[in-house]
Please model this.
Amino acid sequence: MEYTPKKVFVLEDGTYLELSYAEFRQHAATYQGRRFIPLHGMLMEVSEYDYKAFYKQKRRQKYLAERSRDNGDFSYDTLTTDEFNGEDILVDTAADTAGQAEKRILLDKLKKALANLSDSERQLIDVLFTHGLSEREWSAQSGIPQKTINDRKNRLLNRLRKIFEK
Model:
């Protein structure tokens, strides 16, 4: 035994009798074959069933602790303090399926809408929105007046809005 218990509780006629550890050691032969488990710095006599269950659970806890150590497991509970809950640093990486579905539907609508545009309309969208050129920069490169580019862009955006409102 790793420590000397303070007290020992022995079952006598269905009730527990409290002994000091010194008294228990003096009458050790009397308690030969009985089952005792450590409990809060004391020894307590228990039935054989309870004794086996206690040590089975103790072996299981030891096994799980060894397994956790070998696998490098870490408990975020160890980071918990009065001011901070250790589990709060966990990020929910679960997919937002509703948001993803909505995004996919919008992308499908956009692809269909873009497929129905003329080559010049697709080029305008590509230059202004994909490459990020301003109307003025595109006007200088293409030779098309800026006012014409602005009008085409606005008509095109209005058509796309109507498609997405459906």
Q: What stands out?
A: Residues 67 and 73 are 8 Å apart (CA to CA). The radius of gyration is 39 Å. The helical segments are 21-26, 48-71, 97-115, 119-130, 135-142, 146-165. Strands lie at 7-12, 15-20, 35-39, 42-46.
